[in-house]
Write a structure and sequence with these properties.
Helices cover about 55% and strands about 0% of the residues. The protein is mainly α and about 350 residues long.
Length: about 350
């Protein structure tokens, strides 16, 4: 991230070092990771950020520095060689509920997946064989996913803070590009709490959701479909799903230390950003397409009139819904819910003139 910030000014390592009052080797070591920027004194780090802003650094990149620093802590915690012995009660992966931007940065390093903040931004030209991002080496990547299993297996899900660690370890493991994590994630489903047997919300509800989405990401959507059908018995569970989505897309901006925010009855968020997020993911090939459909159905039920807040997105929703209903790639429940969405849109006077 520091390299991207420097290139956005743009300036060289030597020039930036002069501007910041450090030597070139320091800037070089920050960018390479040999000397973590997180080890810089807090006051000095604040001063450096202000200097970078004055030099014309990209504001979006600068704003991402906090998440980048936390992503470094999370990566270090997961890659700890003593992962089988460390105190998991205070592991960095269980500090707070992961956000989309933070998860993006962790996965940028773990699997080389560019974060959303780089979408539409051309890659800077660099001389020589310079890596495009902070991707882990193959051995470190294997260790990353193997250690997630160790962390998940060591948790006690009767303790709220360890439930959060377990579910976030399972969620990240679902991103394993090799598919090697499927077996141990699947073992978690042997518990009744991961087969959708909920009477109302509990801290194990989001844990079961993360396990189900991880398996769907790895190509097995059945547990997720079962979760959608059987783990939403009351308004508390439907509300929890929407509150979690709202947090994920940034409509709830405050960082949450645990999953209890999902139970809030009086939501302050509107849902227009969430609507766009879900409509963008109405794709028969998306691993969570059934969850996206159910969430859209729940959102439109809870937020009457939201389709008029952004009519262009709503028209696109109608187009994509019609295509999905004809695709044969969604569950019977999704067929029913999407049919209800289409009916509601047409009742509101909307027609499908948006771009698919």
């Amino acid at each position: 991230m520091l390299k991207l910030i420097r290139e956005s000014i743009p300036t060289t390592q030597e020039q930036l070092a002069t501007q910041l009052g450090v030597d070139r080797a320091t800037v070089q070591s920050w960018e390479s990771g040999r000397r973590p920027f997180t080890s810089v004194a807090f006051g000095q780090a604040i001063a450096i950020r202000h200097k970078l802003a004055r030099l014309g650094a990209d504001a979006v990149f600068l704003a991402a520095l906090d998440d980048a620093a936390e992503a470094d802590f999370i990566l270090a915690g997961i890659l700890d060689t003593n992962v089988e012995k460390i105190d998991i009660a205070d592991h960095s992966l269980g500090w707070s509920v992961l956000t989309h931007p933070l998860t993006d940065l962790v996965l940028w390093a773990a699997i080389g997946q560019p974060p959303t903040l780089l979408k539409g931004i051309p890659s800077p030209s660099r001389r020589g064989p310079v890596p495009p991002g902070p991707t882990l080496e193959a051995g470190e990547q294997r260790e990353f996913f193997a250690n997630l299993q160790v962390l998940a297996d060591r948790t006690n899900r009767r303790r709220d803070n360890e439930v959060l660690l377990h579910r976030q370890a399972c969620f990240l493991a679902g991103m394993d590009p090799t598919g090697a994590s499927v077996t141990w994630i699947g073992r978690t489903t042997s518990s009744s709490t991961h087969r959708g047997t909920f009477h109302t919300w509990s801290p194990l509800w989001p844990d079961a959701r993360s396990v189900a989405t991880s398996l769907a990401k790895q190509g097995d959507p059945e547990l997720l479909r079962d979760f959608i059908a059987r783990a939403h018995p009351d308004d508390a569970c439907e509300r929890a799903g929407l509150n979690y989505w709202a947090y994920w897309v940034g409509e709830i901006p405050e960082r949450q230390r645990n999953d209890l925010f999902m139970t809030a009855e009086k939501a302050t968020w509107r849902g227009t950003r969430l609507l766009r997020h879900l409509v963008d993911r109405l794709d028969p090939t998306h691993p969570f397409v059934d969850l996206n459909i159910h969430s859209l159905w729940a959102l439109l039920t809870a937020r009457r009139g939201i389709t008029h807040d952004d009519t262009a997105t709503s028209r696109t929703l109608l187009d994509r819904s019609t295509t999905l209903l004809d695709s044969g790639h969604i569950s019977p429940q999704s067929q029913r819910e999407l049919t209800s969405v289409v009916y509601s849109l047409r009742t509101d006077g909307l027609s499908g003139t948006g771009a698919i």
